[in-house]
């Protein structure tokens, strides 16, 4: 392997920039990979933008505008991560060049050690460049948001409600393995202890990237506990995934709300509270309805209901901006019908099939226990499957090196 350096113009002055070209002679000819000046130019542009954004954070005109301040703060967070990774990549390039110069001017053990340092720096730079290039890709505007997930029993009667409960337990186990946090916002029990519906908040790094494709009808094929003849039934539950909205982003006019209170109930219709603490909020302009009953306080239930309503309104607004067609939430849930499934869970064959990408796994029990990465990651951007949001450059290099050794060269381990 040989390394060639080039000189490029940065910040108006000619400096020695540590770029290289891998050149290898193979059986079918010569191939090379060149690290372009344009990517390093982009890093300089980001550093200039960060300086501008930092000045905006101290501008009274920005700080006095809540929406603008949130937007600028979010961009500051994105730029900080990109520059941290890009700066570490640039440093690794410089280290490789310095090690090469040392090796060329040395001999014996010192030259060997310098060559090893050069190789290690090149490997670090390659790993860091991959994440830096990923961070430069257009971002989903919801990537940094927490997620609200709603699950409701759809077709199949009480079996659908029991299946909704099983899906919730599956997601809760998956969330725990990821180190995220979960908060149940509200739920309504069915007669046999299932859920007619349940809503919960998920907080953590890259939760939207991992969960956004979970929205849609999830079909189950199994013998229900209510079946006395041992026949397999097909039922479904509908999952909706929403980005959490900040209060400053979605303002709700109290005059556009209809708020009803009622007595909350548990499984089998039994009363949970003796006061009318449950709350039903209807947004009159859109017809969206959210009900909450888990808290003993009417005010707490109202606050949680508004939290979910705000997320639904944000999603609706984003959909209207992106397309004049049907809203994404209705596309996700539709009727929740069995024929509209995105995924099927077949108990007899221990099979999980994602119909959108033709993926089939024969590990149903493990999937339901929360091992969802093999189902979730194929739906994510390819470069993101082994890159974790907000991971320091040092930890990224250390982790991918370790996974490469364990997997004999593979780099797809770990989650985000």
Q: What do these coordinates show?
A:
The two termini are 33 Å apart. The protein contains 11 helices and 15 strands. The chain is an alpha+beta fold and 416 residues long. The strands form 4 sheets. The chain has an 8-stranded mixed sheet, with helices on both faces.
Give short descriptive properties of this protein.
single chain; 416 residues; alpha+beta; 3-stranded antiparallel beta sheet; flat; disordered C terminus
Q: Which helices and strands occur, and which strands form pairs?
A:
Layout: E1 6-10, E2 13-17, E3 21-26, E4 29-34, H1 37-57, H2 60-63, H3 66-104, H4 108-136, E5 147-153, H5 158-178, E6 181-189, E7 195-203, H6 207-211, E8 216-222, E9 233-243, E10 257-262, E11 278-283, E12 288-292, H7 298-322, H8 328-333, E13 343-346, E14 351-354, E15 359-361, H9 364-368, H10 373-376, H11 393-407
Parallel strand pairs: 8-13
Antiparallel strand pairs: 1-2, 3-4, 5-7, 5-9, 6-7, 8-9, 10-11, 11-12, 13-14, 14-15
Helix pairs in contact: 1-3, 3-4
Strand content: 15-25%
User: Secondary-structure element sequence?
Assistant: EEEEHHHHEHEEHEEEEEHHEEEHHH
Order of strands, widest sheet: 6-7-5-9-8-13-14-15
How far apart are the termini? 33 Å
Question: What is the C-alpha radius of gyration, as a whole number of Å?
Answer: 27 Å
Question: Ranges with pLDDT <50 over ≥5 residues?
Answer: 1-36, 382-389, 409-416
**Separate helix tally:** 11
Short description:
The protein is an alpha+beta fold and 416 residues long. Helices cover 42% and strands 22% of the residues. It starts with 5 loop residues before the first strand and ends in a 9-residue tail after the last helix.
């Amino acid at each position: 392997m040989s390394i060639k350096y080039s000189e490029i113009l940065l910040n108006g002055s000619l400096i020695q920039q540590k770029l290289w070209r891998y050149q290898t002679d193979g059986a079918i000819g010569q191939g090379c990979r060149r690290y372009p000046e344009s990517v390093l130019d982009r890093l300089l542009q980001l550093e200039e933008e960060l300086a501008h954004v930092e000045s905006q954070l101290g501008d009274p005109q920005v700080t006095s505008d809540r929406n603008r301040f949130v937007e600028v703060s979010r961009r500051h967070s994105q730029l900080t991560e990109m520059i941290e990774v890009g700066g570490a990549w640039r440093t690794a390039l410089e280290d490789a060049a310095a090690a090469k110069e040392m090796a060329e001017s040395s001999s014996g053990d010192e030259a060997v050690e310098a060559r090893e340092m050069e190789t290690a720096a090149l490997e670090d730079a390659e790993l860091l460049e991959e994440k830096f290039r990923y961070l430069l890709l257009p971002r989903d505007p919801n990537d940094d948001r927490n997620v609200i997930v709603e699950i409701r029993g759809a077709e199949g009667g009480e079996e659908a409600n029991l299946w909704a409960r099983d899906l919730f337990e599956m997601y809760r186990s998956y969330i725990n393995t990821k180190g995220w946090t979960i908060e149940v916002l509200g739920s309504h029990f069915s007669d046999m202890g299932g859920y007619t519906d349940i809503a919960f908040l998920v907080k953590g790094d890259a939760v939207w990237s991992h969960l956004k494709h979970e929205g849609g009808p999830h079909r189950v094929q199994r013998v229900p506990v209510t079946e006395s003849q041992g026949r397999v039934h097909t039922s479904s539950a509908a999952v909706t995934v929403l980005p959490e909205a900040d209060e400053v982003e979605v303002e709700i006019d109290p005059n556009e709300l209809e708020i009803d209170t009622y007595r909350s109930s548990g499984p089998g219709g039994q009363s949970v509270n003796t006061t009318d603490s449950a709350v039903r909020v209807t947004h009159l302009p859109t017809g969206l309805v959210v009900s909450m009953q888990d808290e003993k306080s009417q005010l707490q239930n109202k606050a949680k209901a508004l939290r979910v309503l705000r997320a639904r309104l944000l999603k609706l607004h984003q959909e209207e901006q992106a397309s004049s067609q049907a809203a994404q939430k209705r596309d996700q849930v539709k009727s929740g019908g069995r024929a509209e499934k995105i995924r099927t869970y077949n108990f007899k064959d221990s099979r999980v099939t994602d119909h959108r990408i033709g993926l089939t796994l024969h590990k149903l029990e493990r999937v339901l226990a929360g091992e969802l990465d093999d189902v979730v990651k194929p739906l994510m951007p390819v470069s993101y499957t082994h890159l974790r949001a907000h991971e320091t450059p040092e930890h990224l290099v250390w982790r991918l090196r370790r996974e490469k050794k364990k997997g004999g060269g593979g780099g797809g381990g770990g989650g985000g």
